[in-house]
Amino acid sequence: MTEPTVSVVIVSRDRPEALARCLRGVAQQHYTNFEVVIVADRAGMARLWAMPEAIHAKQVRYDEANIAVARNLGIIEASGEVVAFIDDDAVPEPSWLSQLSLPFLSDHVTAAGGYVLGRNGISWQWRAQSVDVTGQADDIRVDPGRVTLLTPTAERGIKTQGTNMALRRSWLARHGGFDPGFRYFLDETDINLRLAESGNLTAVVPGAVVHHGFAANAVRDADRVPRDLFEIGASWAVFLDKHCPPERRARALARARQDERLRALRHMVAGTLEPRDVRRLMKGFDAGVEDGRARGHRRMVPLPEPDLPFRPYPARPDAPSLVVAGRPWQGRDRRAEALFQRQAGRIVTEIILSPSAWRHRVSFGPDGIWHQRGGLFGKSDRSDSPIRAWRFKRRIAREIERVRSVRLIERELADQFRS
Question: Which of 43, 209, 249, 366 is deepest in the core (most CB within 10 A)?
Fold first, then answer.
């Protein structure tokens, strides 16, 4: 069967460098049939002008702080059969689109969601969940080695994360896209429950992996310390008014408020917030609730067809994925080799291991290279013991094998280091 055409929508606000990094990651996809639609503010657009990669993308200027409207503008410009969403502070693994688009070969699948790694590039931030009409999410057990198709119920949807999800454009356009009442939060959860109302199948795709950095924005700091809870409170009010039975709303809102208060208190105990900050944040949450209740329901009108035809992004599905490995005292030479290989158009993973038990970190740099740092004897997986004896070559082979399928590294390369 022919792979579906995919439009990748990236929304960006106040994070031009994060947007540039995200686009560099998207440009390394091994998928051949996709286009890129970028919806960004003035700062983001200025950054794109300096990037050669950006000339191949459709670009939409939008300066308002409303994630739902921004995503809808991206959908309107999208000409693919499937629309995939990724946040500007996230970077996809090279196999992301190939994996995320796979379920759409079946006409019965309307939505798909992948797995999300946290800022250390090692621990899972999000995997598979369902969500009910009160907004309560629960984990789902799925086979991590294959795609799982799930049917929602009238009261419980299959949850997807906005930084790693895809939907058929036809469904999105017909149902009006994202609800503009959700300006910052719960916009994708609203979609999940709207899909559940009509029983649409959602695929959970463990092999579709993105790294999410939680970059700073107007609502939180880079270390996830909350700055303002107004829009979170407003989104909860809109969501519960739209989906939750009236007799359950007060309890659900109280739970959401308590969760935010406990989060703020944990930051206060850690020294990143003061008591007065907690009071201010909760006042903002309550004010947001009142504002959200006043927003009322919007009639979702169908979105128009795109004006521009599908614009294939110049991908290189045949680009080899290489590994450059060494020890800290070899760092300069390994760095030069990694940059040379990247400039030659290859996907490059640079692994530098020190003679220590430091935990590993994985990041995608502004240079377009995957960097892994840690100790030869340190953890790179939750299931690892805190310290374990390794020989250098065998440890490198193990790390290659750990990411081989998502980074599209040939098995022979791991075997080479294993010898």
Answer: 209
Residues 29 and 96 in one domain: yes
Residues 106-163 pLDDT 10s = 999 999 999 999 999 999 999 999 999 999 999 999 999 999 999 999 889 999 999 9
Rounded Cα gap, residues 45 and 38, in angstroms: 9
Determine the Cα–Cα distance for residues 307 and 304; give it in Å rounded to an integer: 9
Specify if 301 maps to a domain: no
Does residue 187 share a domain with residue 91?
yes
Q: Domain check: are 196 and 249 in the same one? A: no
Distance of alpha carbon 11 from alpha carbon 313, whole angstroms: 17
pTM of the model: 0.96
The confidence score (pLDDT) of residue 410 equals 86
pLDDT at residue number 418:
65
Whether residue 204 is found in the same domain as residue 235:
no
Q: What per-residue confidence (pLDDT) applies to 223?
A: 79
Per-residue model confidence as pLDDT tens digits over 236-287: 999 999 999 999 999 999 999 999 999 999 999 999 999 999 999 999 999 9
For the chain, what is the domain count?
3
**CA-CA distance, 16 to 48, in Å (whole number)?**
8
Computed from CA positions of residues 222, 227, 228, 229, in that sequence, does the dihedral angle turn out positive or negative?
positive
345/205 same-domain check: no
Q: 268 lies in which domain range?
A: 230-294
